[in-house]
Amino acid sequence: MKQRKVPLRKCVACQEMMPKKQLIRVVKTPEDEVLIDLTGKKSGRGAYLCGKEACFRLAQKNRSLDRALKSQVKPEIYEQLAQDFIKAEDEFLAARDSAEDE
Ligand SMILES: [Zn+2]
């Protein structure tokens, strides 16, 4: 039996290796903006987080995103990301569930 290779990425908060599809990508653009990238196609340095608010909060607490993105992420950016993250979480989970049969 052949096993299908799934690209794995590490969540910067809990350090768990997960299939890329199950992670939310946070990207620092060349313009130095830090945003959530649901398409996974934005250019820039990326960091991955499980699609869970808890993991985002952990990253916020430990400043894991700062390290992963190699730049200082301002508290207000974290707050903005938190808002977006909660919104994205629903979309993300819905998309993931509907993509499961592919
Ligand atoms: Zn995680």
From TrEMBL:
Pfam families in the cross-refs: YlxR (PF04296)
Chain ranges of the YlxR domain: 9-82
Signal peptide limits: none
Gene3D superfamilies in UniProt: YlxR-like
SUPFAM superfamilies, per the entry: YlxR-like
The organism's place on the tree of life at top rank: Bacteria
InterPro entries reported in the protein's UniProt record: YlxR, YlxR-like_sf, YlxR_dom
Name of the protein in its database record: RNase P modulator RnpM
Source organism (scientific name): Paenibacillus shunpengii
Gene: rnpM
